[in-house]
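Researcher: Structure prediction, please.
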Amino acid sequence: MLSQDARRWQTNVPPVARRAARARVVARGAGWCRHAVVMRWHRGLKMSGGFVVCFEAEETDEMNLTIQELLSYTDEERAKWERWFAEHGDGPLAFSPDNAAHASVGALVLHMFGPELQYTEFMRGETALTDYAETAFDKAEALFAFGRRSREALRAWSAGASAEDWERRLEPQEGVSVSARKIATHVLLHEIRHWAQVALVVRQHGLAPPGNHDLLFSTALD
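Model: Predicted structure follows.
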């Protein structure tokens, strides 16, 4: 039977470890490790309060989709649309999606890129976020250049983020407390949804969008 102290350590495993795998308390000969956390990325021994804390690697059947894979997929989608607008000109940016929230396709595309930059700045701990409201969205070249700026910022932050950074709780809106991991995922899924909306609008105006949008045809997860 586990001692009260052992049970306390078992329940106090950091959230990042609980999400990464599972935790257990194990016996080791005459003594025991305070807790063994099954983690894919670390194997070794650490000291905590004079007691050995064991971290053991273990294979898992759990499937994971990473932020880097979603970044790669959405990078491919952006590149397809940038080439498409280069071929069809700036005219389609003025198409109306019949949506009161966004008056044109250009405004909708800016609505993907702008929040990406702001959320990245927010995750970096900045308080003065980029005001993109006056950013022009009627010229594809300039619009996608702004998109490269927002994507480079998110890629740079995610590449350097620690496990603690990803699990840090933030409040993007009053009363909404979420992890940075959830914010980054939201940004990328938000973009995927809106590119589908752009595809619908250009079809409604008699133009075929770039093809092979399905993840199945992407090289992101290969």
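Model: The chain has seven helices and six strands.
Researcher: Thanks, that helps.
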